[in-house]
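Researcher: Please translate sequence to structure tokens.
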Amino acid sequence: MTLTEPPLTEPEAPPRTRRALKRAAIVVLALAVAGVFAVIAFVLWTDNKIDRLDADALPSLSVVAGDTRTFLVVGTDDRSSIPDEFDDVFGNFDGSRTDTIILVNFTPGEGAQLLSIPRDLKVEIPGEGTNRINAAFVFGGPELLIATINENLGIEVNHYVEIDLAGFARLVDAVDGVSFLFEHDARDAKSGLDVEAGVQRLNGEQALSYVRSRQYQENHNGAWETVDGNDIGRTQRQQQMLLALFDQVASKRNAFNLPGFATTFAEEVTVDAGMSLGVIIELGRAALDLSTGDIDAATLPVVDHRGSDGRAYVIPGNGADTLLATFRAGEAFPG
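Model: Translation complete:
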């Protein structure tokens, strides 16, 4: 007769051990629940800091159709918001005007297009006549600027995002600065820029001096030379800095700074009412999946023009119509 050995069984944990395990599980579960509610509370608290414009204030915005959203991103020049600790190189005047006008096509999962519009572009401003495009903001704020872009460039805008000079600097500081490569020593006495050649870590004030430079100079073999010192050169530098900032924000190395960046972004921007919490989270998550290689950037080609009113303008140059057509179609920029 064969004896069958009894099956092996784990010894039953003593009652005290079982109680300890249950308490540990309850603690872990409680911490998890608390963490979820903390994240939700942070998101809601951050969202409440965003300044939103009522839909009635922006009737020229178009309803989103399809996957692509078109944003009007405006950087305003409001000297009253410049921190006291910044060098006194930014000047002083009352009011606010547009310093940066960028149109952005963003298709989640695919990529983005940045199209910079020179602020001296000659346009017909509805109800105001011929003027530079940045005057539309002065005359009628965001709504008139959106209407002017729609009528003159044939581009429908879905969302509006606005940030001032100081806000941009604070965004840069919120991610501990941006790394930027300078091929040569560079300077601009008017904007306060003064950097050496090589990869430099720019803080908010330095980044602001770079994007505002209109008298940009580089040191070539001991001689200072003006390089792209006009408004077109400045729009290109603005795009370069935005891409550097995006690269810094999207970097996995910067995950620790993201909550601070999100808070600063919420405090510094003005957006349209359609930028709800859900939309911002959805777009933000999709944007973080992009790399700078997924972002196509261009500036509207223009040439100098003297108007019959005696003002100096720029008007669309060779290739402008093609560039606008590809942007409207959401296609890759030529070249």
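Researcher: Any highlights?
Model: The first strand starts at residue 51 and ends at 53.
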